[in-house]
Amino acid sequence: MNCCGVQTHDALPFPVNTSLWPWYGRSFDNPGATQTPRYKARPLNGIWASAPYLHNGSVPTLWDLLNPAKERRAVFYIGSHDFDPEKVGLVTNKVPGSFRFDAAPQGNWSNGHEFGTSLSPDEKTSLLEFLKTL
Ligand code: HEM
Q1: Confidence of residue 20 (pLDDT cuts 50, 70, 90)
Q2: How many whole angstroms separate alpha carbon 50 and alpha carbon 44?
Q3: Which residues form the pocket of ligand 1, taking CB atoms under 6 Å from any ligand atom?
Q4: Which of 6, 59, 89, 130 is least surrounded by CB atoms within 10 angstroms?
Q5: Ligand 1 mean position to 44 CA, how many Å?
Q6: Domain ranges within the chain, ordered by starting residue
Q7: Which atom of ligand 1 lies nearest, measured to the CA of 57?
Q8: pLDDT tens, 26-65?
Q9: What distance in Å separates the CA atoms of residue 11 and residue 14, rounded to the nearest whole number?
């Protein structure tokens, strides 16, 4: 469908400007990539210290990220400076001045990135310990 220069796409539940797609995914080592929209994820160095996660900060800890999207916390508070070494991220309790993050509105969604969610609890614990070393 095309309306006012903005097209819809089957894979996405909202209109996107497909005229930008030829630029997505291009890089010096892959200059011809034009097929599907994508971007390069950042390296995971220091990931233990950069909560909240994903591009919109919708996932408070690495432990949440290893849970299926449906089980990730829908509401949490950002503002504490206390580190949670088990879930690997910041403590998400409400503290004075903290910001209430609600993952329900479009743009705040925490869906996607289901990689690692089907690992066993022991494997997830090991993976979290590994991620702490990066
Ligand atoms: C168990 C394996 C994986 C782990 C532990 C992992 C870990 C992570 C973490 C911690 C982030 C958050 C980065 C940040 O917030 O700055 C991330 C983002 C991302 N990862 Fe992975 N990842 C895994 C597998 C994959 C795979 C297989 C792919 C691609 C096929 C992938 C693609 C991405 C992308 C595109 C993002 C950025 C998402 C966004 O910003 O919303 N990951 N990953």
Answers
A1: low
A2: 10
A3: 41-42, 44, 47, 50, 53-55, 62, 65, 113, 115-116, 127
A4: 130
A5: 8
A6: 1-40, 47-132
A7: 15
A8: 555 555 655 555 566 788 999 999 999 999 999 999 999 9
A9: 9
